[in-house]
Write a structure and sequence with these properties.
The protein has 154 residues and is α/β, with parallel strands linked by helices. It has five helices and five strands, in the order βαβαβαβααβ. It has a five-stranded parallel beta sheet, with helices on both faces. Helix 2 links the parallel strand 2 and strand 3. Helix 3 packs parallel to helix 5. The termini are far apart.
Length: 154
């Protein structure tokens, strides 16, 4: 019987929670798979820059370059975590609203498991700001693993 290919998408941003989720899934799930049939894609979503907010073209270009550098820094850190664990990974930068963009990527890339970190927003903040992980758990077309950071031990 041929091993089954598993596509895993891990969404990361600049938060400690997203990197804790990546570390958890690498240590607890991905490193334990004996075969090499897991494809790990690390995605960072850069929110689209509002065009009307920047009157000069050079300002827009400068903001876009800074955003690209930030995305590259985040993905480089995440990629290195996978490489240190001898996992092959690829990285992608997506642009748009994180909720909708990640859901669309899940469908387009035929993802089997989506992994996200939870920031642990309280009920009030979650009600006003919306939770990306809550949205993805409800709308993504694949299983979603939401990794919570363990509470700090004092």
């Amino acid at each position: 019987m041929d091993p089954v290919l598993m596509n895993v998408l891990v969404a990361v941003d600049d938060s400690d929670e997203s990197f804790a989720a990546l570390r958890w899934v690498v240590d607890k799930i991905l490193k334990r798979r004996e075969d090499s049939t897991t494809v790990v894609t690390i995605a960072h979503v850069a929110e689209a820059l509002p065009r009307y907010a920047f009157p000069g073209g050079h300002v827009v270009e400068s903001a876009r370059k800074a955003q690209e550098q930030n995305s590259a820094r985040i993905l480089s850190r995440a990629y290195e975590m996978c490489r240190e664990s001898s996992l092959k990974a690829k990285t992608i930068i997506l642009e748009g609203d994180p909720k909708e963009t990640i859901c669309r990527a899940v469908e387009e890339m035929n993802i089997h498991l989506l992994v996200v970190g939870s920031r642990g927003l309280g009920q009030i903040k979650r009600a006003f700001l919306g939770s990306v992980s809550d949205y993805l758990a409800q709308h993504a077309k694949c299983p979603v693993l939401v990794v919570k950071q363990p509470p700090n031990k004092i």
